[in-house]
Design a protein that fits this description.
The protein is mostly helical. It is built from 16 helices and 4 strands. A hairpin with a 2-residue loop joins strand 1 and strand 2. The longest helix has 19 residues, at 49-67.
């Protein structure tokens, strides 16, 4: 472990422990379940039983809140995250729960909300049916009957697809304006990512022709004279000239969806095409004209490190390992022990105090990224919460 990381991790740990009261939610992204995941991995990393015990305690705290009337505008997503972490933590031997009984109420809640999103035509990989599909996929090892619900999601995606000469696309319900997103968090790359993962796990058969058409539609929208290779939203003028370059928005997630597709379709030409794109993307350096919103996993540096390393695992391309090392180096260089957030302040959602601390945007995500530099297996624990892996 680099000496600087061994200095940074204890400082992050102290700040996270002292700020635990701000994690008022129940989910993984910014709630008590995220603290549970963090403390379990920190305890494993340093062989610290007290931290492992805290991981279990924060899990109980999530249940206490839920049982005492907890409400939020993202409650269904938080319930899905909490249930997914219990499943993953069980498999990793951090917990020993009888999940079939414990998570049956979660299943019922998620299934009801899932079917509501299907009726609304909301496929969104984060807020809609696909997002709940990842919870069901995580639960499949304990309850194989949930695969039927994944079949319902696939059927709805077949029906929701719009077909043109350029290929197939989806209209987003995220903001109620039928925008066509291309990326991994809200768009076509996210649809590809989901379908291919459940097909790879032999959960549901999918239509190869639909995969091919979605790929063709993304390729047909490649930009010719723009800092981005692909638009965030098709036919949307970039009035602010802001060019996101992150997991959530921008070319990295689009390229990841195409890479998944090339492997699934066993298409050497597509693989060559997307490898060329990824090399261009991965060699971008921080700063104008590209915009990375902070150090976190969702919008910033940590997320790029996570994505580049997984694509390196998939391809063996050395330039991706170099891009991963570059992002880790940036994280290390940002550390400032005199700063309130140790140099890792987030960018968006500053009205929420937990933003700078949580797993998705803040210090927990930074700490996990730095721990996983020494033990890459840790990435497999938090990747599922960014839809990069079904355990």
């Amino acid at each position: 472990m680099p000496e600087r990381i061994s200095e940074i991790l204890p400082a992050l740990h102290k700040k996270i422990k002292n700020s635990a009261g701000l994690f008022t939610g129940i989910g993984v992204s910014s709630g008590a379940a995220g603290l549970s995941l963090y403390h379990c991995l920190y305890g494993d990393f340093y062989n610290d039983q007290a931290s492992r015990d805290m991981g279990l305690n924060y899990l109980y705290e999530s249940f206490d809140r839920l049982n005492n009337g907890y409400v939020s505008r993202t409650i269904y997503r938080e319930i899905g995250e909490l249930g997914s972490w219990i499943e993953i933590g069980n498999r990793l031997k951090y917990f020993d729960f009888e999940t079939e009984e414990l998570l049956k109420p979660f299943d019922d809640i998620i299934i009801k909300q899932l079917r509501s999103e299907i009726v609304l035509g909301n496929f969104d990989p984060v807020t809609g049916s696909i997002g709940f599909g990842y919870y069901l996929a995580n639960r499949m090892r304990s309850n194989g009957s949930l695969g039927v619900l994944l079949g319902e999601i696939v059927a709805s995606l077949n029906l929701l697809a719009y077909h043109t000469n350029e290929g197939a696309f989806y209209k987003s319900k995220l903001k109620g304006d039928d925008s066509i997103y291309l990326g991994i968090s809200h768009g076509i790359a996210g649809v590809l990512n989901f379908l291919i993962q459940i097909a790879d796990h032999k959960i549901v058969d999918i239509d190869h022709a639909l995969i091919r058409k979605c790929v063709n539609y993304i390729k047909s929208n490649k930009l010719q004279h723009d800092p981005l290779l692909f638009p965030i939203i098709v036919d949307h003028e970039n009035e602010k000239e802001v060019y996101p370059n992150s997991w959530c928005y921008g070319d990295p997630g689009v390229a990841y969806g195409l890479l998944r597709s090339a492997h699934y379709l066993a298409d050497d030409d597509l693989l060559k095409y997307v490898t060329g794109l990824i090399e261009v993307i991965s060699k971008r350096k921080y700063g104008h004209p590209y915009f990375e919103a902070g150090p976190g996993l969702l919008y910033g540096t940590s997320g790029l490190a996570m994505l580049y390393y997984q694509m390196y695992e998939m391809t063996g391309q050395v330039f991706l390992l170099e891009a991963y090392e570059y992002q880790i180096g940036r994280l290390i260089s940002q550390f400032d022990q005199n700063d309130p957030y140790l140099g890792y302040k987030a960018y968006w959602n500053q009205e929420l105090p937990v933003t700078n601390l949580g797993l998705s945007d803040g210090l927990v995500g930074v700490a996990l990224t730095l721990m996983s530099y020494s033990n890459k297996e840790y990435q497999k624990v938090y990747r599922p919460f960014f839809h990069l892996q079904i355990p």
